[in-house]
Every structure is written in C-alpha cells, then in structure tokens.
C-alpha cells in the first residue's frame, strides 16, 4: 500500500471535498423506489426516484422475478457470449424490438453500458460525433472511449448543429446523438429537425430514450410519438426507470445489433443480467404495452404540478415532462430548500455541479404515475410554504 500517495493526494482531496457544498453522501433511505420512503425515521413522499410508473413494486413484476429466480437461480454466471444466456433475454430483446418498431434489439447490464457499447462499436478515430451539450455522461464517456472526436452543440440549438455539420463536411464518418428527454432539465430534443440534418449530412442518428421510455408515445418513447421510428438509426434505452427493473437496451437494424454484439466492449466483457431481472423487465414491458395510458396520466399530473410551480414564481427551466427542475443557482440554496421540503414531508433531489453546469444548482422533481390526489395536494402545499419561507 502506497502511504505516500494516499497521504499526499487522496487525504487532502477527500478533505477538500468533504468541506465543500458539492460533497455527496448516500441518503439514509430504505426501499428507495417506493412511493413513500423512510428517511432518518421520517416518512416522506418520494419525488426523487426515476420509478416513473411505480412499477418496481407491481405484483406482475414481483411474481415474474420470483418465478425466474426459483427456476434459474440468482446469476447468469457468464457473459451472454459464453454461457450467460437465457431464453428470457432473447424473448425480451424480440419484444423490445417490436415495441420500438425496430428489426432487432440487444439487452445490456445498464443504460450506461448500452451507450458505451454503441459508441465503441460504431465510432472510431475517423468519426466525428456531434453531441448535445447536456447529454448524459454515459454518452460522453462512450464517445471518449471510442476514440472519436467529440463536437458539442449548444443545448437544443439546431442552427448551431447545422453550422458545425457544415464545418465538418469532409469528415469521413459522422454521428449525431441526443437524449430525447433530458434528465436534469425535463425538456425534449427537437428530433424532427435533428433527423433532417442527419439525412442532409449523411450522419447516423443515435438517441437515448432513457427518460421517455414508458412515458411518451404510449410508452414507446419520443421517437414513436413523433412518427420517426424509421428515421432514427439507433435507439438506446433503459429498463431501470419507467419499467421498474434494471438493464439497458439498444434497438436498431439487424446489422447494427450484430456489430454491437461483436464489438461492444461493455456487452462482451460483462456478466449478463440475472434471470430474475430479465423476467421483471419483460413483465414491465408487457404491462406498459397492455396499459398505454399510464404515461399520459403521468404527463397530466406533471402539467398540473408544473403549472402550480410556475404560478408561484419558481423557474422550472423549460420542462415539459415528468422531470421538473426548480432553479436555485447556488449549491447552498438548493440544499437548504431540499431540507425545508423534507420538513414538509417531501423528498426531492438537490442536484449540483458537476451533474449540472456551474451556477445552475436546482431541485429536481421526478413525478410518478401512482401519485394520488392527496399526494398532489401535499406537493402543492409544500412548495407554497417553501415559496413563502425561503423564496419571498
């Protein structure tokens, strides 16, 4: 053990972080996906989870997961390319592909791993990747790992993207990538225009539907909602949010999925998802297919709460979805507001840099379809009191 490195670098860096308002700790919660959580002994309404449809505790998912664990055990035991395969995985991939109106799909251990697989398979040092400035970290990391050149365009700014594409007209290979719903702002990408630019410049179009899957487009995501399923080349998503389980996926043409299966390092070199998780994801997908109105209910709830926050004078930063930020600016303001809301029985996330840009710390509400009318009253009252006591 190198005590000199530890004492010289790790100890002072940890102390500096611990004494800053950027320091993070794991919250003292149990059963963190539930509608109500116990936080340091107090029961709070959970507005911080990405369990958007409340499916993580649904009886269908629990039953399917239990049956799979009983039959197949608790681990896959290897990567999919060795022996870690199950018929459950192949069924899930087939149904995901159909649900997303694509030819094929590949399931990965997480949404993060899915983005790494996409870019290590499809991009290289001869590729320029045009990425929205607020895209998820997994997209950025995938691009960097691929060796491609990263070019960032201003958030949602298609004119800026167009100029950058013109500037890179001679690039051998071009990819445009965007989140469809942005995880910290709750706004949506202008996909129709982005697809037009992709076609005009011969660029592959990749989208991440992590926060749209299960919510928009009768559960199929923003791409399907806008009728662009034949125009977007690669769709990445996750089963860990609205689908209430775990794992990522990529849906695309057969040849694209073949490349990912053979070149995607995060897929090839990872132990496959266990059968209980695969079964829960499959049950969730089938539940969303059978109940396509769940996302629409969530969007109605979100509109009501966002309108209330706007009426109180809060800045919700252009959100149009179930993710509603409340701008605070400084880290300490966000942390103080979070604490006041906890006293009101509401658990919200206080999001600070580097997750968001410097000077844009915020509260982040993640609303969910299983909120009751009483819950909505509770949220409105809590934020009304916050406005009076903290944002006069």
Automatic annotation (TrEMBL):
GO-annotated molecular function: 8-amino-7-oxononanoate synthase activity; pyridoxal phosphate binding
Q: Note one Pfam family from the annotation.
A: Aminotran_1_2
Task: Cite the annotated pathway.
Answer: Cofactor biosynthesis; biotin biosynthesis
Query: Coiled-coil ranges per the record?
Result: none
User: What PROSITE patterns is this protein classified in?
Assistant: AA_TRANSFER_CLASS_2 (PS00599)
**EC numbers for this chain:** 2.3.1.47
Domain annotation Aminotransferase class I/classII large: ranges: 43-379
Q: Which GO terms describe its biological process?
A: biotin biosynthetic process
Q: Which reaction does it catalyse?
A: 6-carboxyhexanoyl-[ACP] + L-alanine + H(+) = (8S)-8-amino-7-oxononanoate + holo-[ACP] + CO2
EC primary class = transferase
Q: Which cofactor does it need?
A: pyridoxal 5'-phosphate
Q: How does it assemble?
A: Homodimer.
Q: What does this protein do?
A: Catalyzes the decarboxylative condensation of pimeloyl-[acyl-carrier protein] and L-alanine to produce 8-amino-7-oxononanoate (AON), [acyl-carrier protein], and carbon dioxide.
Similarity annotation: Belongs to the class-II pyridoxal-phosphate-dependent aminotransferase family. BioF subfamily.
- This chain's protein is named 8-amino-7-ketopelargonate synthase
Record organism: Solidesulfovibrio magneticus (strain ATCC 700980 / DSM 13731 / RS-1) (Desulfovibrio magneticus)
């Amino acid at each position: 053990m190198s005590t000199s490195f530890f004492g010289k670098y790790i100890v002072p860096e940890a102390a500096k972080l611990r004494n800053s308002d950027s320091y993070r700790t794991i919250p003292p919660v149990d059963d963190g996906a539930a509608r109500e959580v116990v936080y340091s002994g107090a029961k709070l309404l959970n507005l911080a989870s990405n369990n958007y449809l409340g499916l993580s505790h649904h009886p269908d998912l629990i039953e399917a997961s239990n049956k799979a664990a009983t039959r197949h055990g608790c681990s896959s035991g290897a990567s999919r390319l060795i022996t870690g395969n199950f018929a459950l995985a192949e069924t899930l991939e087939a149904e995901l592909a159909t649900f997303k109106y694509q030819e094929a799909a590949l399931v990965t251990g997480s949404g993060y791993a899915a983005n790494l697989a996409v870019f290590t398979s499809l991009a290289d040092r001869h590729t320029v990747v045009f990425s929205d400035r607020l895209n998820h970290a997994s997209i950025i990391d995938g691009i960097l790992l691929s060796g491609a050149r990263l070019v960032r365009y201003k958030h949602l700014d298609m004119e800026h993207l167009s100029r950058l594409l013109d500037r890179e007209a001679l690039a051998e290979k071009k990819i445009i990538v965007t989140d469809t719903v942005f995880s910290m702002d709750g706004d949506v990408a202008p996909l129709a225009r982005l697809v037009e630019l992709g076609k005009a410049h011969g660029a592959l179009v990749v989208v991440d539907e992590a926060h749209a899957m299960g919510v928009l487009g009768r559960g199929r995501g923003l791409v399907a909602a806008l009728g662009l399923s034949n125009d977007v080349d690669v769709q990445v998503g996750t089963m860990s949010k609205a689908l209430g389980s775990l794992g990522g996926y990529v849906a695309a043409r057969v040849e694209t999925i073949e490349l990912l299966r053979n070149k995607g390092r995060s897929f090839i070199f990872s132990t496959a998802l266990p059968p209980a998780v695969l079964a829960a994801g499959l049950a969730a997908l089938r539940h969303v297919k059978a109940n396509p109105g769940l996302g629409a209910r969530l969007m109605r709830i979100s509109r009501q709460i966002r309108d209330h926050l706007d009426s109180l004078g809060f800045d919700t930063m252009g959100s149009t979805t179930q993710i509603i930020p409340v701008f605070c600016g400084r880290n300490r303001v966000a942390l103080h507001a979070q604490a006041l809301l906890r006293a009101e029985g509401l658990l919200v996330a206080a999001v600070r840099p580097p997750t968001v840009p410097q000077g844009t710390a915020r509260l982040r509400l993640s609303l969910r379809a299983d909120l009751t009318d009483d819950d909505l009253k509770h949220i409105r009252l809590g934020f009304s009191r916050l406005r009076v006591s903290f944002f006069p």
